[in-house]
Design a protein that fits this description.
Low-confidence stretches of chain A: 1-33
Shape of chain A: globular
Largest interface: A-B, 60 and 49 residues
Mean pLDDT of chain B: 89
Number of strands of chain B: 0
Number of helices of chain A: 18
Shape of chain B: globular
CATH topology of the largest domain in chain B: Cytochrome Bc1 Complex, Chain D, domain 2
Strand order of the largest sheet of chain A: 1-2-3
Oligomer: heterodimer
């Protein structure tokens, strides 16, 4: 996942109108053959759950026509055209071809896909769901747009390397329900682990560009974006063991909750994908995610900042906080949830990595405008008014006040994040 | 200087107020656009009045259609400025419309006018281009679209007064270099591509030197026959 700018125009024609128009015009052979508008609607929903649109639509480009640049540490990849255009898209593909791509990570010609396509997660998707997504993709307007060549550095431009990557990191196989768990938990596990491909960001990416199944959901810094995707298994990070199911579900679907708001790359996931999910499905995801938050607690916070320096930071931080932050987040950090998130007891502020709170202070941000939060409240950026010392001080202050147990941060930590790309 | 000494020096200058921010009594923030756009006004000034930083322009009183077009352009990447692109990335049209309406309706006082620091010759060039354009070089007069009073036209042609010289210069430059684009046909890109560096300096100095009239409202849509087609302005 990475940041992008998505035109909104394609969000409007929902399936009912689309399917009706297609039936009237009789131009879409897939629908004419199957005469199953329901499978197209189901497929669109599942494509949303898989967030196909986010990567396969370029900024300002046509829906699902690809060409979206995805910078990686190994070079730039471009997403492909998955509209039903016969020459440049997937118009000549069969449902079998499509399933093989989702399940095995192989293109129609048998070529191995780069793992930017999250087939490590999509392999868990059932054949029936894959077929529905395929029916939906065949129903969107075809766009004639040839795929762009990837721009990878040597040696990563050698696709044979993918074989090695697959050996290390790819476990093919449809999701197998855990019979000891309720159906709702299994539905959540299927969505989180399969189409949701949450592990792509919430597991550490190692030097080989893979993430280990045994450490799934343990968190990591997202390459190229410089946002930290927190652990979903540690309650000290984004582990949700002590959130209520309603809080988790609100967070996923609306982007705001009584415990915190989404920001950074997660704002995109909510905006493009999760806000379209039914309450039933976000609740199922909540049930599963809550159950993940039962891991062992991480080691206590440690910091390279000396105690003398951190006490000076705290004094300055209190002053900055009172002047700039307290008006919304409250003198005791309680906020006004869900619009102004609480800072006291907010896990995302106390994590070992201080990247996210520093970036929020520098860059501010609006939660995504979702169906459940159409008129969001935005946080100002402070990069232009606070010095590195002041940023470090106020972040140190919020990480260590009101019972928060984060570690102090230094001005160097703050400065390092001033120059990261914003989108 | 070591971090310790630097911090100690900063703290010596900090005036400590006892919890300057009022304790919150309500459970919810005000249900107003003013509260929602605090992320905007921290740079653009209260009510979008502008600040003494020339690159954070006044938003107040600009036509809503213009502001909306800019918000959409920032969101979709047609106008490049990373902090704005970042803030607006995940906002639906409906919310951008509300933001545009809010700032269009504000009418705070204008900041003091700048004193031009360029030669009288350059000011005369700026005035000439503003009022008459330069037919030989394919440059229409600013007044032909922005109206002779330079207060803009509904719904999407902005006024040109009350803006700092550096901001005007930066926008004309951004059109020339393609970091600011509008819906096609991009009339301002066409105009800016005919301008020289000297023209830009002259126009920026002249426009920023003009007083803002008491009634700075836009003329109605369709009042002016525009010399160029503009994708961002329905006619």
């Amino acid at each position: 996942m990475h940041r992008r700018l998505i035109p909104r125009s394609w969000r409007l024609p929902l399936v009912s109108g689309l399917a009706l128009a297609m039936l009237v015009c009789g131009l879409k052979p897939v629908l004419a053959q199957t005469n199953q508008p329901n499978i197209v609607a189901a497929g669109e929903y599942l494509a949303r759950a898989g967030d196909c649109m986010a990567c396969h639509t370029a900024p300002g480009g046509k829906l699902l026509a690809g060409g979206h640049a995805m910078p990686t540490p190994f070079g730039t990849l471009y997403s492909t055209n998955i509209t039903p255009d016969p020459d440049t898209g997937i118009g000549r593909w069969s449902a079998d071809d499509f399933y093989r791509t989702m399940h095995e990570g192989r293109s129609r010609d048998g070529g191995l896909l780069y793992p930017a396509m999250p087939f490590g997660s999509y392999t868990k998707v059932t054949r029936a769901d894959s077929d529905a997504i395929f029916a939906y993709l065949k129903s969107v307007p075809p766009v004639s747009l040839p795929n762009k060549e990837n721009d990878l550095q040597f040696p990563y431009n050698n696709r044979a390397l993918i074989l090695g990557w697959r050996t290390l990191f790819f476990n093919e196989g449809t999701y197998r329900p855990d019979d000891s768990k309720p159906a709702q938990w299994n539905r959540g596990a299927y969505l989180v682990g399969g189409l949701g491909h949450c592990a792509m960001c919430h597991s550490a990416i190692n030097a080989l560009g893979g993430n280990s199944q045994s450490r799934a959901f343990e968190g990591g810094l997202i390459p190229m974006q410089n946002w930290y995707a927190p652990s979903l298994t540690s309650n000290k990070e984004a582990g949700l063991g002590n959130w209520s199911l309603a809080e988790i579900s609100d967070y996923l679907r609306d982007g705001i909750s009584h415990r915190g708001a989404v920001y950074g790359p997660m704002a995109e996931v909510v905006y493009d994908s999760l806000q379209y999910m039914t309450d039933k499905d976000t609740l199922a995801m909540a049930v599963y995610l809550k159950s993940l938050g039962e891991g062992s607690p991480p080691p206590p916070a440690s910091s390279k900042v000396s105690s003398a320096e951190s006490s000076l930071l705290m004094i300055l931080g209190a002053s900055v906080y009172d002047k700039q932050c307290a008006v919304c987040h409250g003198p005791e950090g309680r906020g006004m949830p869900p619009q102004y998130p609480p800072l006291a007891s907010n896990q995302s502020i106390q994590m070992a990595s201080a990247v996210n709170p520093i970036r929020m202070v520098l860059n501010g941000g609006f939660p995504p405008g979702t169906f459940g939060n159409l008129k969001p409240y935005g946080m100002p950026p402070f990069a232009q008014v606070l010095s590195d010392d002041e940023v470090a001080a106020v972040v140190t202050y919020i990480r260590t006040s009101w019972g928060n147990l984060g570690a102090p941060v230094s001005a160097r930590n703050a400065n390092a994040l001033r120059s990261v790309p914003l989108n | 200087m070591s971090p310790m000494r630097r911090l100690a020096a900063i703290l010596a200058g900090v005036v400590f107020s006892s919890h300057a921010a009022a304790a919150q009594t309500g459970d919810h923030p005000p249900d107003t656009m003013a509260a929602r756009v605090l992320g905007c006004t921290s740079c653009h000034g209260a009510q979008g009045r502008g600040t003494d930083n020339d690159y954070f322009p006044r938003l107040a009183g600009k036509p809503s259609g213009y502001l909306y077009n800019q918000l959409v352009a920032f969101r979709d990447g047609r106008r490049r400025y990373p902090p704005m692109n970042y803030l607006l990335e995940f906002q639906p049209d409906s919310f951008l419309r509300l933001i545009a309406d809010y700032f269009a309706e504000q009418n705070p006082p204008f900041p003091p006018r700048a004193t031009p620091v360029v030669s009288p010759e350059l000011l005369a060039l700026g005035r000439g281009l503003t009022v008459n354009g330069d037919v030989a070089r394919g440059i229409p007069a600013c007044a032909s679209c922005h109206n002779p009073r330079l207060t803009g036209m509904q719904p999407a042609v902005p006024g040109l007064l009350g803006l700092p010289s550096d901001y005007i210069s930066a926008q004309l430059g951004a059109w020339r270099y393609g970091t600011r684009t509008s819906a096609e046909p991009d009339c301002m890109q066409m105009v800016a591509s005919h301008l020289t560096e000297t023209d830009v300096t002259a126009l920026s100095a002249w426009l920023s030197s003009l007083p803002v009239p008491v009634n700075a409202t836009q003329v109605p849509q369709g009042s002016l026959a525009m010399p160029l087609p503009c994708g961002s302005q329905p006619n």
